[in-house]
Amino acid sequence: MNGCPFCSIVAGEAPAGVLYRDDRVVAFKDTNPQAPEHFLVVTARHIPSLAEVESGDEELLGHALVVARKVAQELGILERGFRLVANCRRQGGQTVPHLHLHVMGGRQMTWPPG
Ligand code: 5GP
Ligand code: ZN
To answer: What is the pTM of this model?
Structure first.
């Protein structure tokens, strides 16, 4: 989508520390990391948030989770564990309206989140 920062990264038009890419998802480092390791898994297709996910997106979302796990393993945060977050819309704290999973690890996480 025009003007969407994550669509620009998916298209290869904006620089990003890409960790994984295929035709369905792209994983890249978050520019403002909240943990020693913090990356995002975004859908290649522009879906604004989890609120717009539809029946038929099951395989895409499952694939995004498998990629999150695979990249977490490559970064060495699988064994000790990690936090996975999907902020949805305004009260969920979402700031970029393109569906993405946050994966954070390398430090002890606390609960509940703020
Ligand atoms: P949200 O607040 O929507 O859940 O998360 C958006 C995340 O994207 C934030 O953690 C923010 O640091 C990250 N972010 C925003 N713009 C960019 C960008 O242009 N490149 C990268 N790599 N990360 C971004
Ligand atoms: Zn987008």
So the answer is: 0.98
Model pLDDT for residues 26-81, shown as the tens digit of each residue? 999 999 999 999 999 999 999 999 999 999 999 999 999 999 999 999 999 999 99
Answer yes or no: is the C-beta of 53 below 6 A from any ligand 1 atom.
no
Report the distance separating Cα 48 and Cα 63, nearest Å: 18
Q: How far is the CA of 90 from the centre of ligand 1 (A)?
A: 15
| R_g of the chain, CA atoms, integer Å | 14
User: Which long-range contacts does 5-8 make (Cβ < 8 Å, 24+ apart)?
Assistant: 5/96, 5/98, 6/40, 6/42, 6/46, 6/96, 6/98, 6/100, 7/46, 7/98
